[in-house]
Each structure stands twice: as structure tokens, then as C-alpha cells.
Structure to design on (109 residues):
């Protein structure tokens, strides 16, 4: 119960955080992992039985849950989809792909 409470506290305090996304998210991951490690040791067996499935579920959770938090702030502020994707990537690469109408926006900037 405590790890979930810590996660909810992070969500509630997100708008007041002075840290950038590149510092805030890794810090959250480390703190929540530490809380899970300390308080869930007696409940959860920390050995991974299905390694590939575990990694794939982790990637899916990141793509569905965490990544939109990085993309959508600029999109909600009126930027178009292409600008929002550009602002959300940590480094520019030829491998980045924008899927969708790049000129689509939610409103006036």
C-alpha cells in the first residue's frame, strides 16, 4: 500500500516540482523502486520468472503511461503534434518517427 501512496503523492505534487523532466522522472523511479524494495520484500518474490514478458510489459507501460506525460504538456499548451514530439525527445535522431498529422493541435498557441 505504501508504494502506491508514494506514487500518488508524486502525481499530486508533479505540478509543483521545480525539477526538469530529465531529472524528475529518473528520481521518481529510483525512489519508488527503493520503497518497493524495502516494503514489499516479504510479499513479492523479486526473482523474474518470465524475463522477456516482463521487459515487454515494462516497455508497454512506459509507452502507454509515462511517455504521454512527456509529450502532452506542449500539446496541451497549443503546440502542434510535430512541435510536441520535437520538444519531448531528449536527443534528435534520424530514427524518430512522428505518427499522425504533424499540423494537428488542440487550439491556438
Amino acid at each position: 500500500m505504501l508504494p502506491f501512496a508514494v506514487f500518488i503523492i508524486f502525481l499530486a505534487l508533479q505540478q509543483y516540482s521545480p525539477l526538469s523532466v530529465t531529472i524528475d522522472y529518473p528520481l521518481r523511479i529510483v525512489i519508488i523502486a527503493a520503497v518497493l524494495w524495502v516494503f514489499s520484500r516479504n510479499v513479492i518474490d523479486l526473482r523474474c520468472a518470465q524475463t522477456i514478458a516482463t521487459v515487454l510489459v515494462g516497455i508497454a507501460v512506459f509507452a502507454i503511461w509515462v511517455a504521454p506525460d512527456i509529450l502532452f504538456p506542449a500539446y496541451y499548451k497549443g503546440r502542434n503534434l510535430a512541435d510536441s514530439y520535437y520538444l519531448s525527445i531528449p536527443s534528435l535522431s534520424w530514427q524518430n518517427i512522428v505518427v499522425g498529422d504533424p499540423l494537428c493541435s488542440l487550439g491556438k498557441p
